[in-house]
Amino acid sequence: MEIARGTSLAHQAYLMTREKILRGEIPMGGVLSRRHLAAEFSMSFVPITEALQRLEDEGLLESRPRVGTRVKIPTPNDVRERYIMREALETQSARLFCERANPVEREGLLEMAERLDQESQIVSCDPKEQYGFQSFHLQFHMQIALWAGSTLLCENLEKNQVLVFNWLFDINAHSRMPEGWHGELAKVLTGKDPDDAALAMGRHIRSGMGEIQEAISKRFSMNLPPIGRISQTRSSKDRRTAKTAKPTGKKTSAITSPAVKTSKKRKTAR
Question: For the structural domain made of 76-219, what CATH number should be given?
């Protein structure tokens, strides 16, 4: 991985850790060790901690007591929310590309789509091949935003990490793209109707969401329960125990025992 000169150690650690996640070296649910990362990157704990905090802020990692820091396992709703954000940004990219792209850019997108479709049918599950393929897939979608001529759209695609999350979802769900999927999209985007381009991009993004939600749920729901389920179960048990527990001598009972009632009656009779 090439990193520009002058990049801070924290940013280097961020990029290298994210790459390990996207390469599948640290899978969803995989725990990250600050000590191991510091040794691997030849850094102190400080930049490693800053990098992990940034990845956690972006939603790629999560930290919990007794679990540590691990690659976040998304719920179906997490996947849905990421797709909603991606659709909002990329449909606008598609619309602007259709309106503004010049002939050279349109031809370039068609060529990229053809190559992407060819590679999607032959790429294996090998991590190295997947990394190269997913890198090109991300580049294809980012190129649409670049040729759309909107710097702010590009910045938001990068800031919200929507394409990075799509990459992460794909490799963990082991999803495969339909034949000719991006070629069909590129034909509409290089046409003359911006509304059709936006609709085509929306359909393109939504089409794989359900499959990925189901695949991730099946893969992780049995092997690794969502964080919080254990603690919630314990809390329920504690509540049930508290309800059925017998009062001790140290606690004052609101119920008067029969012996006390009898004693009171005798005193009244006297």
Answer: 1.20.120.530
